[in-house]
User: Which sequence fits this backbone?
């Protein structure tokens, strides 16, 4: 996973928008959490009063730490009030394990203050007085109370709802008045949102959760409230690593991006001249091409040629593989006379082998997007979609097609040309494109299949769909040689019903086998 | 024998020497460790509360008991300050009291190092005693043995 400081520009916090004269400009502070600013629409509004809520173990405290370590300076310090839950000394012990933890900020830029004794021994007024005393003394830009839930739980044992609401109101008004961006961390369940005045007063509500499905656990983030600015709705996957939290926006960081390829006129060769002709001149740049066929028909070989052709024309590429290992891919390219090693060394090609356990689809797609950005890829191979889905933990597969749809849409919109392979089972009764029902994802479809001809299992290829225009309707035979996939020159075929895989000879013309046939 | 590392003992000695550099020894018969802990107490109490500091110092005291018998007469009060009978000063030799003070401060520092690491501990010490020169101190390997 990439470190925060390596985050691509796509996720960089947005600057405040220029508004008409007289309207207030709300500056946004970066969260320091990769992907989170994109979800928030640029960052957290300055002076806002926010709640970081969720069940235990979701990453609430880590998120709060990441935000303050990203923003706190000696001139704009952060105050971190700890209450009962996790004492500051334990926070320091554990949080220093994260890469974002900068011990040089402790003391002057970030100050930890325990409110435990005040909360335990005194009332809400005393808690408010202590908070206001410290804030007035230090003048922080950021204030965290962790856990605010503990403050409220202790206090509510002796006070009514109105008094509690008044306390929250006072805290919110005071901290906003002192120009502090505030984060109240607390363990809440969603049923509490309706009746708890805290959620009414808050400007921002960030909800973290852990979802368990079968043996998989995934952490999710939802912006349930973001007063005064847009955020990306829905549940976003988050991952906690040694770099802290990383958020994976449902839009994969492409929210609001303009299409970079308005003309879409250029056609790219797939590296097989005959197939280019069949496709009406090649694949339209920025298209998504699906190559469907059963195992062994040469889908990966075709994908290899597609990338190699791009490299020949100075177009960097990414190959994301899920079944075969990278050496197998480079070996195949070598056997076709295509030197992938050289391109890899020059940083023009990356072969991503993605078979991690329990990664969400958004995380895997982020890996692909990062690689595309690293090499400036113009061509992407996903080999294969079935392998991609299988590499995901079962709990994440439900999101697969939706996420894939978003990623393909975003990448092709940005001008990246994608070739995806999908394995389909030949039924010998029909020509299915994919049991997978992902044809809607693609602009173009090529089908490869086996046919039984004259006692041989041969291979045929056909262009099913080309969104960019007309294409050949021919079913062409091909072979895989030391050059890769080679489409055989057109010739009179004496067969009908090739698409079924069990063609019928319709004349007595002698057919010459394209490859040597076993002799009796 | 003090189980704390040599670096931690060195730091403890410096803190005690710094605290005792005035005329404090003439003002009271309290052991030197009291002054170090009393200076440290409000800073750590802000960080971990009075209760947290009380627990930490109590643990350090228990660990130090094993090596210094007169420390058994010392108690940690509810607010985290140390208390001891005046009789202790009458019966314990000054050198023994000084050695015991070093051990208790060393234990306290060792506990901090064990919890938050040498770097943050040293940073905290520097904040509490900003005028104390520690530049020549090799404390990065000062974890508790």
Assistant:
């Amino acid at each position: 996973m990439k470190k925060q400081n390596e985050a691509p520009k796509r996720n960089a916090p947005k600057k405040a928008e220029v508004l008409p004269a007289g309207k207030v400009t709300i500056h946004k502070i970066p969260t320091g959490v990769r992907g989170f600013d994109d979800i928030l629409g640029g960052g957290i509004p300055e002076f806002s009063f926010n709640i970081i809520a969720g069940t235990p173990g979701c990453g609430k405290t880590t998120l709060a730490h990441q935000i303050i370590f990203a923003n706190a300076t000696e001139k704009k310090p952060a105050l971190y009030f700890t209450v009962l839950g996790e004492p500051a000394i334990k926070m320091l012990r554990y949080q220093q394990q994260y890469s974002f933890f900068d011990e040089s900020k402790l003391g002057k830029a970030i100050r930890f203050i325990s409110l435990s004794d005040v909360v335990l021994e005194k009332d809400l007024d005393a808690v408010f007085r202590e908070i206001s005393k410290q804030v007035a003394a230090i003048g922080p830009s950021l204030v965290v109370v962790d856990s605010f839930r503990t403050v409220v739980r202790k206090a509510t044992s002796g006070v009514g709802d109105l008094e509690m609401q008044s306390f929250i109101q006072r805290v919110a008004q005071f901290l906003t008045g002192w120009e502090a961006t505030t984060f109240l961390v607390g363990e809440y369940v969603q049923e509490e949102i309706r009746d708890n005045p805290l959620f009414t007063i808050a400007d921002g509500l960030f909800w973290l959760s852990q979802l368990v499905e079968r043996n998989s656990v995934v952490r999710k983030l939802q912006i349930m409230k973001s007063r005064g600015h847009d955020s990306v709705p829905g549940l976003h996957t988050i991952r906690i690593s040694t770099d802290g939290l990383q958020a994976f926006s449902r839009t994969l960081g492409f929210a609001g991006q303009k299409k970079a390829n308005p003309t879409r006129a250029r056609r790219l060769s797939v590296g097989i001249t005959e197939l280019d002709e069949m496709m009406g001149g090649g694949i339209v740049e920025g298209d998504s091409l699906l190559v469907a066929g059963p195992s062994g028909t040469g889908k990966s070989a075709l994908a290899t040629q597609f990338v190699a052709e791009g490299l020949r024309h100075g177009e960097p590429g990414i190959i994301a593989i899920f079944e075969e290992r990278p050496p197998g891919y480079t070996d195949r390219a070598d056997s076709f006379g295509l030197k992938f090693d050289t391109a890899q060394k020059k940083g023009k090609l990356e072969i991503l082998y993605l078979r991690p356990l329990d990664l969400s689809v958004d995380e895997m797609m982020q890996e692909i997007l990062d690689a595309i950005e690293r090499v400036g890829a113009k061509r992407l191979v996903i080999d294969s979609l079935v392998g991609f889905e299988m590499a995901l933990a079962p709990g994440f597969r439900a999101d697969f097609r939706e996420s894939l749809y978003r990623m393909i849409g975003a990448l092709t919109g940005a001008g990246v040309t994608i070739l995806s392979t999908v394995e389909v089972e030949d039924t010998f009764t029909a020509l299915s494109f994919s049991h997978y029902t992902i044809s809607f994802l693609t602009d173009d479809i090529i089908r490869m299949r086996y046919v039984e001809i004259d006692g041989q299992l041969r291979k045929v290829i056909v262009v099913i769909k080309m969104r960019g225009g007309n294409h050949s309707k021919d079913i062409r035979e091909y072979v895989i040689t030391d050059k890769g996939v080679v489409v055989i020159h057109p010739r009179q075929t004496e067969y009908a019903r090739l698409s079924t895989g069990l063609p019928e000879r319709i004349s007595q013309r002698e057919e010459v086998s394209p490859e040597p046939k076993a002799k009796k | 024998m003090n189980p704390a590392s040599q670096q931690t003992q060195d730091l403890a000695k410096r803190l005690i020497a710094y605290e005792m550099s005035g005329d404090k020894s003439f003002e009271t018969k309290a052991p030197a460790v009291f002054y170090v802990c009393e200076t440290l107490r409000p800073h750590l109490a802000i960080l971990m509360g009075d209760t947290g500091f009380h627990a930490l110092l109590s643990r350090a005291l228990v660990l130090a008991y094993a090596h210094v018998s007169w420390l058994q007469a010392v108690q940690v009060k509810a607010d985290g300050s140390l208390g001891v009978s005046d009789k202790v000063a009458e019966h314990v030799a000054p050198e023994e009291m000084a050695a015991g003070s070093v051990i208790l401060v060393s234990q306290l520092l060792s506990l901090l190092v064990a919890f938050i690491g040498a770097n943050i501990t040293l940073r905290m010490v520097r904040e509490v005693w900003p005028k104390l020169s520690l530049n020549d101190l090799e404390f990065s390997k000062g974890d508790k043995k």
